[in-house]
Amino acid sequence: MQNVHFTPPEIARLIGVNESTVKRWVDKGLLTAEVTPGGHRRVSKRDIEKFIQAHRKGADRSYILKKLNATSDSLDYEPYYLNLLSRRYREAQQLLHQAYISGVAIADIIEQIIVPTLVRIGRGWKEGVLSIQSEHRITIVIREQLIALQQFTEGDTLRKKGKVLISCVPGDNHELVLHILALALKSYKYETEVLGINISIKELARATKEYRPDHIVLSKVYSAVRMSTEYVNGLAQIMKVYNTSVHIGGSGWKKGEIAHIVKQVPYAYESRTLKELEKIHLCKVQK
Ligand code: B12
Fold first, then answer.
1. What's the CATH code, domain 163-282?
2. Strand (E) or helix (H) holding 121
3. Distance between CA atoms of residues 169 and 192, nearest Å
4. 5-67 carries CATH number 1.10.1660.10
5. Domain 72-152 is classified in which CATH homologous superfamily?
6. What tens digit of pLDDT does each residue of 44-70 get?
7. In testing the pocket of ligand 1, which one of 112, 126, 167, 174 has its CB within 8 Å of the most ligand atoms?
8. What CA–CA distance (Å, rounded) separates 154 from 5?
9. pTM of the model
10. Residues enclosing ligand 1, CB less than 6 A?
11. For ligand 1, mutation pick of 177, 216, 262 (most atoms within 8 Å of CB)
């Protein structure tokens, strides 16, 4: 992926500005480009990332903000949802990229655009307004768009806070949330590995042995899923053997369920909001 190059029209589409704006950024030296023997501008993925990082923080941010008018106060999920519903996927993605480039924190993009969209989809499905096919179609697109956003957070200076393994509890098939968690964690400078759905305690132990994470993040979205004694005991064993902390969250936990696990598992923490994940590196265990 490191040698991927983009043309100005491609970059324009990616971040939702005019091609001439991209060319102007290049000409002003704000965005580093190589010029091909034929005289065409080409920008590496790394230079786009650098540009985005710089403009999210630097004095020139207002230059982009003038063009892109999003702030965390003005985020609205509806345009994103409506674009997805009517198959305007590129426009939907641009809304996410524009918010990111204009400095909105990833956690806010997730909480204010993506999660309300998913909740709306869930409501639509429950009320019979949205077909299961539409739910699947939109979910797949959101998954892709979450992964595309992750690429922007892959700068050199990132991933210093530790390694995190992300998993659903067995029986819960809501995989999308794992990519949401990975995106948030990456934006908080953690390295992540998504394990996916239906990971038994045996598989979790195996992945922990292989990947040696500093932390495990465990999510449950579907409340009917029950945690077996075998699973909880196994979790305790993994935490002891590998000195890894486990962070448990998601909307599917019943009252008292997490507290019950936290009592039995050393280094287990209940942490419901994405923002809490920013500080999990402070949950150090003696290695
Ligand atoms: C997409 C979706 C699906 C897709 C999943 C596709 C995929 N690849 O993920 C499919 C179609 C497979 C699916 C299946 C089912 N689904 Co479904 N699904 C949804 C939907 C629309 C979105 C799910 C989602 O990603 N939510 C967004 C997550 C990110 O929100 P969240 O849990 O609140 O998490 C937030 C925080 O809690 C935090 N968080 C989450 N985990 C963690 C962990 C830590 C450590 C921390 C700090 C934070 C944290 O991050 C999130 C952002 O803030 C929801 C609607 C909804 N309201 O969520 C229904 C929903 C979750 N599904 C539901 C149901 C009933 C089902 C099915 C039983 C349907 C069926 N009859 O087959 C099956 C269950 C399958 C199973 N065994 O798991 C119900 C669950 C109700 C309940 N009481 O649990 C919901 C709420 C829909 C509804 N309104 O009824 N589903």
1. 3.40.50.280
2. helix 115-126
3. 17
4. yes
5. Methionine synthase domain (1.10.1240.10)
6. 877 887 787 776 654 344 444 444 444
7. 174
8. 16
9. 0.84
10. 110-111, 115, 118-119, 121-123, 126, 135, 139, 171-177, 180-181, 217, 219, 221-223, 247-252, 271-272, 274, 276-277
11. 177
